[in-house]
# Entry
Amino acid sequence: MALKETLLKAFAQNRKVALYAAGAGVALFGLGLGYKYMQKPKKLTQVGIVSQLILHPLKSGKGLQVAKAECLRMGLKHGELRDRHWLVITEDGRMVTARQEPRLVLVTMTAEGGDICLNAPDMEELKVPQHQPNNNILNCKVFTADVQGRDCGDEVSRWLTRYLAAGKTVRMVHYEPQMKPRKCKQVKPPFPPDEEVAYPDAGPIMLLSEASLRDLNSRLDKDVTVAQYRPSIVVNDCEAFSEDSWDDIQIGTVRMKRVMACGRCILTTVDPETGINNSKEALDTLKSYRLCDPSDKKVYGTAPLFGQYYIVKQTGTLHVGEPVYKISY
# Structure
């Protein structure tokens, strides 16, 4: 009798477990079907064409136009050069940009056979090894954020100090992959906490349309060029400021997400052909019609908005001439 009761009890318990398992399975299946049919399919709508890809290997240096570039999490890469991975600093590690030294915009950096090559007006070309592993790693500041860089050596320091003729010694550092990066969020809170950069002001990719530049020039007495705004990607075949609404885009296999607009500063008034800052334009004109909504003043302050910052969600290679698609769901 005891055996019979034990068997009946075990059957009842197993039956309850089986029913629970079956119920859970049905629920999960239902959720899966619900998600499948509630999630809208991805839609790609062409919104423009890539007209320029521009790297600025040296922060505040002259931009290099390229026909194709790798688009990585920390910005564009072409050959051995990566966007804003070299930085001029003071002896105590603080960044030096064209805000302080406008003639930096005339310095060109290229790469050749394992060397980096520096050129500037009235200066002989300087070639030094790109990788100098025995040089010191220095602690640097970009705005208020800490970052590291490998010193590029005394020869580069003397060359830049002589060129800038600012009465103070400067050095150049190179960011290497193993070094401590900067968190984008430290500079601009709208960025996700896991996004990192080397020496850019805020984010890895800045996109601007030719139509937006034409709109600005239509309001000026003297045209400005895209070089004054230092974008990574320039897009054509779209309406002025349509990039303001491209929240998710795809170019080839690369996918990017818009984070915030680019607030513009005094650096944009430096003439990229002369390295001279003798005008408040086009900054004043931008301020007349491109200020943020009052609710966003805590992010942008009084800086006018021109271009958009993106983060890279899927890496790949970009080519000039490729269509730009807006992703919708």
In short: Residues 16-31, 33-38 have pLDDT under 50 and may be disordered. DSSP finds six helices and 22 strands in the chain. The radius of gyration is 26 Å. Helices lie at 2-38, 154-164, 184-187, 210-217, 283-289, 297-300.
